[in-house]
Design a protein that fits this description.
- With 400 residues, this protein is an alpha/beta fold.
- The protein folds into 2 domains: 206 residues, Rossmann fold, CATH 3.40.50; 158 residues, P-loop containing nucleotide triphosphate hydrolases (Rossmann fold), CATH 3.40.50.300.
- It is built from 15 helices and 14 strands.
- Strand 10, helix 12 and strand 11 form a beta-alpha-beta unit.
- The longest helix is centred in the first third of the chain and has 14 residues.
């Protein structure tokens, strides 16, 4: 199958060709015909399978056939980085159609808010927004969505994890009852089903390889003590085998400290976290995408927040607390049918988490022995309870 089989508007084909799109992925092949036929859908597919284009292409096709008097599509995103990337993809695909879009998100200074406000007052075809900032604009009356025809919830599971349920329902109260609603998610927990039953009408369901890393990912694991991890990273990155790497840690404080440590080791890296100003975040991401920054360090928010081609290595500095997050971290490499490597460090405390990851993905990840110079590795015993650190309690005695 090719994209010509969908009979898109001619101007949309020009955008497809300019961006190098040739054949649809599995999620695109199954969802595009449903969306073109105005069906509500709930679609589940792993990261890196082309979900964004799966809903953008048919929406752009519909909008190109109207007079575009009103805002017709709203795409909700959990993070500003993802909103920006969706907006960039709209610009590329819609370049020859004349369809306009804007990314609406919080952070930054008042100038950004004013820029968003003016753009929406002038009229825009597609709004890509994070829930909090969009509510602010809706309450101010700047944007009217009375004639909206398409609502998309992208990374719906992450939005619910981040506590956006009430915001989503509040936004929906501003929308027409008659509309097409598309829910895209990388995982399908019960809360997603509940949301879908609330806001979708007779939806079609599409499931593509739920909770499975892409086949192009070489997955490996090192059993390692904490004091061996930095030296192991230096060894992995020092040979020049990997041109671009993302390192994930589960805590923001760990991200900051690891970045300082790697810089002392002579590794060119930057930490990506919520304490940075928006301009700093954009500068770091731009450098990473342009291959000027070889190593990016972040938390699980980063695993859903960026779409960068050519990431050759993902390192899990620690096992993620939720097995589903492993799939999203690993999904940053081997995107769009390319290949990549994902390496996880597992200490004594994380062995049960890693055991749950293997159960979730239904396979045993390749064990790689530690280099001899790093010393002995911990024994893998996931069924045992991790040893708790002994803390001597201070006994308070009443004065006589």
């Amino acid at each position: 199958m090719t994209f010509h089989d969908f009979n898109f508007a001619p101007t949309l084909f020009e955008g497809l060709e300019s961006m190098g799109y040739r054949n649809p992925t599995a999620i695109q092949e199954q969802t595009i015909p449903l969306i073109i036929n105005r069906k509500d859908i709930i679609a589940c597919a792993q990261t890196g399978t082309g979900k964004t284009a799966a809903y953008l292409l048919p929406i752009l096709h519909h909008i190109s056939q109207t007079d575009r008097t009103y805002t017709q599509a709203l795409i909700l995103s959990p993070t500003r980085e993802l909103a920006q990337q969706i907006d960039q993809q709209v610009e590329g695909l819609a370049y020859f159609t004349g369809i306009s879009s804007i990314a609406v998100y919080g952070g930054g200074d008042g100038a950004i808010y004013e820029q968003q406000r003016r753009a929406m007052m002038d009229g825009v075809d597609i709004v890509i927004a994070t829930p909090g900032r969009l509510i602010a604009h809706l309450m101010s009356g700047v944007i009217k969505l009375d004639h909206l025809t398409h609502l998309v919830l992208d990374e719906a599971d992450r939005m619910l994890d981040m506590g956006f349920y009430e915001d989503i329902m509040r936004i929906i109260s501003y929308l027409p009852i008659v509309r097409q609603t598309l829910l895209f998610s990388a995982t399908m927990p019960p809360k997603i089903r509940t949301l879908a039953n609330t806001i979708l009408k007779n939806p079609e369901t599409v499931n593509i390889a739920i909770s499975k890393p892409a086949s192009g990912v070489l997955q490996q694991v090192y059993m390692t003590h904490d004091h061996q991890k930095v030296k192991l990273i230096s060894r992995l990155l020092g040979g020049g085998q990997y041109a671009s790497a993302i390192i994930f840690a589960s805590r923001k404080e760990t991200v900051k400290e690891l970045n300082r440590t790697l810089k002392r080791e002579g590794i060119k890296s930057e930490a990506f976290h919520s304490d940075l100003e928006q301009e700093q975040r954009e500068t770091i991401l731009r450098a990473f995408k342009n291959k000027l920054l070889p190593v990016l360090i972040g938390t699980d928010v980063l695993s859903r927040g960026i779409d960068v081609e050519g990431v050759s290595l993902v390192i899990n500095f620690d096992a993620p607390p939720d097995p589903e997050d492993y799939v999203h971290r690993v999904g940053r490499t081997a995107r769009a049918e390319s290949t990549g490597t994902a390496i996880t460090f597992v200490n004594e405390r994380d062995q049960r988490k890693f055991y749950s990851i293997e159960n979730l993905i239904g396979m045993e990840i390749i064990r790689v022995p530690l280099p001899e110079e790093l010393g002995e590795a911990p024994v893998y015993e996931p069924q045992l309870k991790p040893k708790k650190a002994f803390v001597k309690k201070k006994v308070w005695r009443k004065k006589q």
